[in-house]
UniProtKB/TrEMBL annotation:
CDD domains for the chain: IgC1_L
Keyword annotations: Disulfide bond, Immunoglobulin domain
InterPro entries documented for this protein: Ig-like_dom, Ig-like_dom_sf, Ig-like_fold, Ig/MHC_CS, Ig_C1-set, Immune_Resp_Modulators
UniProt-listed SUPFAM superfamilies: Immunoglobulin
Pfam families: C1-set
Organism, scientific name: Rhinopithecus bieti (Black snub-nosed monkey)
Protein name as catalogued: Immunoglobulin kappa constant
Keyword Cell membrane: no
Residues of the Ig-like domain: 1-95
Origin superkingdom: Eukaryota
Keyword Protein biosynthesis appears in the UniProt entry: no
Length: 99
């Protein structure tokens, strides 16, 4: 699982996208929960799952979209992944100040 902060250009000019990427998982069912400063986000993310790869695994990207102003007001961005292959949810995060 990887998390990617928005580019400096996005932060400067309007709408920002934070991306969570899951690779090589099976079966297909996986869920991503976004948290901003430990508050679960709803309604401002979109998921896209690839078709099954040659090795029978899937990939998924989840994009959290915020205004630059909203993004600047918070510090910690996290995506929490739940999948039956994991014994507990897996969280990847970044602190905006470290980017």
């Amino acid at each position: 699982v990887f998390i990617f902060p928005p580019s400096d250009e996005q932060v400067k000019y309007g709408t920002v996208s934070v991306v969570c990427l899951l690779n090589n998982f099976y079966p297909r069912e996986a869920s991503v929960k976004w948290k901003v400063d430990d508050v679960v986000q709803t309604g401002n993310s979109q998921e896209s799952v690839t078709e099954q790869d040659k090795d029978n695994t899937y990939s998924l990207s989840s994009t959290l979209t915020l205004s630059s102003t909203e993004y600047q007001q918070h510090k910690v961005y996290a995506c929490e992944v739940t999948h039956q292959g994991l014994s507990s949810p897996l969280t990847k995060s970044f602190n905006k100040g470290d980017c």
